[in-house]
Amino acid sequence: MTLLTSLRNLGLAIGASLAVSWHAAAAEHVVRMLNANDSGSMLFEPAFVRAEVGDTVRFEPTNSGHYVRSLALPASARPFSSPEDEPFTLKLDHEGLYFYMCPPHLMMGMVGLIQAGAPVNRQAVAESMLATKGRMMSNSQRVDVLLQQVK
Length: 151
Fold this sequence. Notes:
Its cofactor is Cu cation. By secondary structure, this protein is an alpha/beta fold. The chain has three helices and eight strands, in the order αββββββββαα. Strands 2-1-4-6 form a four-stranded mixed sheet, with no helix packed on it. The protein has a four-stranded mixed sheet with strand order 3-8-7-5.
């Protein structure tokens, strides 16, 4: 085996190892869609998730009548909407904030926020979140609580 072949094989091995370790390091976060818990009614638990780019968030409809839809996202991220009453997994491929809601329960303040890496789109998402407060008949303070958790 020549030195060039050995170096090429070493490079391939290192690349494969890095790909495997990056994939292994990705985390899965679970968000439950609930009718009620000790904190209130019609909510995501947890409502705020701090994650890294490459992680996934799995939404689980613990009670019926829930689904998740994006409201504001990082610039290159694709909007999402899950089927009602079915688990949904979102891969966080872009850095920034992901603001979402349960459409049937938005008026009751059923909103959530994911921070993947740095909040590069903070201003745009904050504006969307504050505008959404006007569509909530109750629990609009949840928007403020979510925004306070962004770092």
